[in-house]
Write a structure and sequence with these properties.
mainly alpha, 7 helices, 2 domains
Amino acid sequence: MFGSRSKDEKAPTDKVTADLSKQPRDPEAPKGRPTPKRNDAQGQRRRAQSAPVDRKDAARRQREARRADLSKQREALAGGDERYLPPRDKGPVRRFVRDFIDSRFCIAEFFLPLAVVILVLSMIRVPQLQNIALLLWMGVIVLIIVDSIGISIRLKKQLKERFPDEPKRGAVAYGLMRSLQMRRLRLPKPQVKRGERP
């Protein structure tokens, strides 16, 4: 009874599968291929497990590329090569601002050494020295503010004359931040001498 029924059912299914194989397969349809052998499946699993090694290789290569870029950037900051400078320092406007600041004597660049001297004076327990330190502190701050205002006015004027069509956003702030750094510690390194016209 069961045997005759299964024989009758097999014939139509063979016919249907033969018809389906002739039609193009829908990509969302079931796989339509035999299950892989155990050896093949295990090989695929091993390849999947070895993927992290490839990721590690990729991460290592990426780190090496980043190191190479950073070393080029450091060399550019030391030598002034425009090609490898960070975006913050690139362009003719930023180069002019650097040269403008580096060619001048700025009071702000002596802020850190003066701050150390004033701090040492204020720590000494002599009231007269502490008063002198306080007066020096206020005097230095006032001089830096006045000098910075003068620099920003002159720099804005020069930028308008030399670069009328170029974007100048943030250039004055960039120059003022550079003026706060001691000349020998500035990056990119100064390319002009003091008193030289930029």
